[in-house]
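This section describes the prediction task in plain terms. A model, or a person checking by hand, is given the sequence of a single protein chain and must write out its three-dimensional structure as a string of tokens. No templates, partner chains or ligands are provided. The sample shown here is typical of the held-out split.
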Amino acid sequence: MTEVITVINFEEELKNFKPSLEVEEAEQAIYNHELTDMTDVLQEILYEAKRHVEAGRVRIDKVRFSMECYNCGAKLGKGDICQNCGANVKIYKKIIMASNAYYNDALEKAAVRDLSGAIESLRTSLRFYKMNIDARNLLGLVYFETGEVVEALTEWVISKNYQPRDNAASRYLNEIQNNPSRLDTINQTIKNTTRRCCTGRQDSRDLAIIQLKKVLSLNPKLVSGHQLLALLYIQEKKYDLAKKSLRNAGKIDANNTTTLRYLKEVNAGLRENNPKKQKNEDLISYQSGNETIIQPRYLKDNSAI
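The expected answer:
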């Protein structure tokens, strides 16, 4: 009996992630373009740290997450100076808040299944602060929901290394690492299928379709698998089957640009194969008195005016 990889319920796990409340200053800075780019932010942080070290007031230590001083670990208040050690935390706080703001944005996108958008926001969040545990765990969860199991495992392993205790990543890893051989089989099959797809040979494409269907039977949420299957069908000019595969991909990731781009090509192919049907779909007919009116859909009947 075929074992399907569905050990983590995305919707249920998503409820465990809560929005961060430490974002207001960051959002205002982003909208006002106060932070031009990360190089400017890092340069200012290094300058402030160097200035305080030279003044003999602080020491360089491991940066801590949440609103704690990166220098001494004390809880931070509303000001720009740490009340415990005197470090200037203005830019540091903006970085943390920016990371949280992008995490919140990703959480909203994930809730409406804009998983591609969520991944992009979470990557940005982690570029601001790599130890944002909630952002990294959510990124792993979104990767897993799109069928990218190896990427999910990677994010959760990193998360666990940063925070070994009280971390949901530990539970996720335990749940999906029970059968690593099956994951390796899926990844290897995807690589072989991609290689055969790129050769352009008819027999290779036929074999690639068979293998992809096998992969999707094991991992039905693999968005890239549905997209690749649709691409093979497009090459075969089997647009109806391609559209079905793309709809399956869209149910998982509603706003994936690759899916939308392929879908546009599929619709163009369907119109080309059946122009009469498309022409009829572009027309509407209705009764106006004793007459039957036929006109394009984008026109309105103004006879009653």
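For orientation: The longest strand covers residues 283-288.
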